[in-house]
C-alpha cells in the first residue's frame, strides 16, 4: 500500500527475529528497501499507482490508446516494469540463498560468522535502545483490520483518500478503547502524519508548476525538434528509464522528477513512434530505482533506520544487487522496444 509503512512496520517486527537467527542487519535493510517501492509500484491500489496514473492519463499518446482511466493505463504498464520486478526476484533469490552474497554484503555475513555481531561497530550508536529478548507483544488484528479496510475500500471505490479516512476511523475505534493509544496521542499522531506529508506536497506543487511553465515556454517542442533526429523509437524506452533513474538518483526527488520528465518524453516518444506503454513502464521503473537506490532518499534512510544500521552501510551493501537489476532492466526495455 505504501513503501514507508512497509519499511517501518516490517523492520520493527523482524529485527529481533533476524538477530536471533544471526542474519546481518545489512541483509534486513536490503530486504526492507527492496520490498518497499518495488512492491508498491506493482499494486494498482498503492499511493504510487494513484500518483502515476493521474500523471499518465493527461498525456495525449496515452489517451490515444483508449484507456478510460489512469489506473487502466497503469495496470497495462505493470508487466513491463522491469526494475521493480527484477528487484523483487533478486531479493527473493537472496533470501533463499540462491543469489550469492556480493561485495560489502559478503563482508557483513563474514563478520557475523567470525564475531557474532549482527551490526558493525559503526552502527552500534543506532541500537542503544534495543530491548533484550524483544518480549513486548501486540495484537496482530490491530494491524490487519485497518489495512484490510484500507485495501478493500480503495479497490471498491477507487478513492484512496476515502479509504484512508475510513481506516483512520477504524483505528480510532480499535485503539482508543483498548488503550493502545491515548485519545490525545491519537489525534496528535494524525496531525503529525499530515505535517509529514507537507514537504512532499509542496515538492509536487512546484514540480507541476514547473511542468506548466515549460509547456508555456514551448520547451517540449524545442527539445523534440533537437532530439528527434538523434533518437530511435525502439531504444527510446530504455533511454527514458536511464534518464528518470539518473535524475531520481541524483536529486532524490522521485515523483517530482517524474512529473517534470513525463510531459517531455511522451510527446518525444510519440514523434519517433516509441511504444507509450513501455514509456510508462520506464518512468515507473525509474522512479522505483530512485526510491530503492538513492543513498539519501526517504525509503533508503527509513530502511537503514528501521534496521538499526548506518545509512551508507545499507546503501553500499545493496549496491551490487541494484546494479544487476538496473542492467537487466535496460536489456528488458531494449528487447521489448524492438519486439512491441
Structure description:
- With 340 residues, the protein is an all-alpha fold.
- It has one domain.
- 74% of the residues lie in helices and 0% in strands.
- The chain has 17 helices and no strands.
- The chain is globular and about 60 Å long.
- The two termini are 30 Å apart.
Write the layout of secondary structure elements.
Blueprint: H1 3-20, H2 25-34, H3 37-40, H4 47-56, H5 60-63, H6 70-77, H7 82-96, H8 103-115, H9 141-157, H10 160-178, H11 183-216, H12 219-227, H13 236-251, H14 254-271, H15 276-293, H16 298-307, H17 311-339
Helix pairs in contact: 1-2, 1-16, 2-16, 2-17, 4-6, 4-14, 6-15, 7-17, 8-17, 9-10, 11-14, 12-14, 13-14, 13-15, 13-17, 14-15, 15-17, 16-17
Summarize the structure.
The chain is built from 17 helices and no strands. The protein is an all-alpha fold.
Q: Tell me the span between the first and last alpha carbons.
A: 30 Å
Please report which band the strand proportion falls in: under 5%, 5-15%, 15-25%, 25-35%, 35-45% or over 45%. under 5%
Number of domains: 1
Fraction of residues in helix: over 70%
**Sequence stretches where pLDDT stays below 50 over 5 or more residues:** none
Task: Tell me the total number of β-strands.
Answer: 0
The backbone outline, from C-alpha atoms, is globular
Amino acid at each position: 500500500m505504501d513503501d514507508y509503512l512497509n519499511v517501518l512496520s516490517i523492520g520493527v517486527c523482524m529485527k529481533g527475529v533476524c538477530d536471533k537467527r544471526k542474519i546481518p542487519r545489512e541483509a534486513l535493510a536490503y530486504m526492507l528497501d527492496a520490498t518497499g517501492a518495488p512492491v508498491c509500484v506493482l499494486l494498482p491500489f498503492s499511493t504510487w499507482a494513484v500518483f502515476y496514473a493521474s500523471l499518465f492519463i493527461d498525456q495525449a499518446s496515452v489517451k490515444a490508446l483508449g484507456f478510460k482511466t489512469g489506473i487502466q493505463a497503469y495496470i497495462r504498464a505493470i508487466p513491463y516494469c522491469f526494475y521493480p520486478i527484477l528487484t523483487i526476484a533478486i531479493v527473493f533469490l537472496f533470501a533463499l540463498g540462491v543469489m550469492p552474497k556480493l561485495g560489502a554484503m559478503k563482508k557483513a555475513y563474514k563478520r557475523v560468522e567470525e564475531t557474532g555481531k549482527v551490526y558493525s561497530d559503526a552502527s552500534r550508536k543506532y541500537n542503544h535502545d534495543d530491548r533484550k529478548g524483544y518480549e513486548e507483544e501486540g495484537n496482530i488484528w490491530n494491524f490487519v483490520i485497518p489495512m484490510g479496510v484500507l485495501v478493500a475500500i480503495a479497490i471498491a471505490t477507487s478513492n484512496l483518500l476515502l479509504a484512508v479516512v475510513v481506516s483512520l476511523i477504524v483505528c480510532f475505534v480499535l485503539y482508543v478503547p483498548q488503550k493502545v493509544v491515548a485519545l490525545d496521542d491519537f489525534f496528535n499522531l494524525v496531525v503529525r502524519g499530515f505535517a509529514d506529508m507537507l514537504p512532499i506536497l509542496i515538492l509536487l506543487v512546484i514540480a507541476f508548476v514547473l511542468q506548466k511553465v515549460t509547456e508555456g515556454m514551448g520547451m517540449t517542442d524545442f527539445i523534440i525538434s533537437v532530439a528527434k533526429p538523434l533518437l530511435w523509437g525502439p531504444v527510446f524506452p530504455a533511454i527514458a528509464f536511464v534518464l528518470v533513474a539518473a535524475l531520481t538518483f541524483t536529486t532524490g526527488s522521485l515523483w517530482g522528477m517524474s512529473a517534470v520528465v513525463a510531459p517531455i518524453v511522451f510527446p518525444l516518444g510519440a514523434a519517433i513512434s516509441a511504444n507509450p506503454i513501455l514509456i510508462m513502464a520506464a518512468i515507473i521503473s525509474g522512479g522505483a530505482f530512485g526510491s530503492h537506490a538513492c543513498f539519501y532518499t526517504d525509503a533508503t534512510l527509513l530502511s537503514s533506520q528501521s534496521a538499526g544500521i548506518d545509512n551508507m552501510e545499507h546503501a553500499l551493501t545493496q549496491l551490487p544487487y541494484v546494479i544487476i537489476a538496473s542492467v537487466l532492466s535496460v536489456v528488458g526495455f531494449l528487447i521489448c522496444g524492438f519486439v512491441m
